[in-house]
Amino acid sequence: MLLKLILLFTVIPVVELALLLEVNKHIGFNYTILIVIVTGVVGSYLARSQGRGILNNIKFAMSQGEMPGDELINGLCVIVGGAFLITPGLITDFAGFILVIPHTRMLLKLYIRNKMKDMINRGSFVVRYKD
After folding, report:
1. CA–CA distance from 20 to each of 36, 92, 102, 109 (Å)?
2. In Å, how far are 24, 126 from 129, measured between CA atoms?
3. Does 128 fall in a domain?
4. Cα(14)–Cα(32) distance, integer angstroms
5. Would you state the pLDDT for residue 131?
6. Is-contact 16 91, C-beta < 8 A?
7. Rounded to whole angstroms, how far apart are CA atoms 126 and 80?
8. Is residue 131, in this structure, part of any structural domain at all?
9. Count of domains observed in the chain
10. Could you tell me if 109 and 77 are in contact, meaning their C-beta atoms sit under 8 angstroms apart?
11. Residue 29: per-residue pLDDT
12. Residue 23 confidence (pLDDT)
């Protein structure tokens, strides 16, 4: 696990930098910086608006006595997507938009739900709660 994290935090930034330098060659420095700034601003706006809607849905479900499982997964996706979107880079921006936009998030949400079910069935995922 540690090796995967080290690779993640070293390889991704290097690839992002190489991609930004390549984009810089083709469209110029100013436009490259503009792309990074615009995706950050638009992404943070989307994450904030999606986050508010998700929080409202969670509150409503809980007021009805329901467990907001899908909305919790949505919230996790939006938080991670928002973090990706404020990180400079084109790959992280792409991943962030996939996580923040509701229609593209649906496929990932299905994958996460199925993965969690498999982990629960295997006994490697335990949910504890207190009354």
Report:
1. 9, 12, 27, 29
2. 51, 10
3. no
4. 17
5. 63
6. yes
7. 22
8. no
9. 1
10. yes
11. 94
12. 95
pLDDT digits (tens, 9 = 90+) for 37-92: 999 899 889 999 999 999 999 999 999 988 888 898 999 999 999 999 988 889 99
Query: How far is the CA of 86 from the CAs of 10, 26, 45, 47, 113, in angstroms?
Result: 18, 23, 11, 10, 26
**Percent of all residues in the chain with a pLDDT value above 70, rounded to a whole number:** 98
Angle formed by the axes of helices 102-122 and 69-86, nearest 10°:
120
Residue 40 falls within a domain, yes or no?
yes
Average pLDDT, the chain: 89
In whole angstroms, how far apart are CA 124 and each of 68, 74, 119? 22, 22, 5
80 is in which domain, residue-wise?
2-122
Residue at 130 is within a domain: no
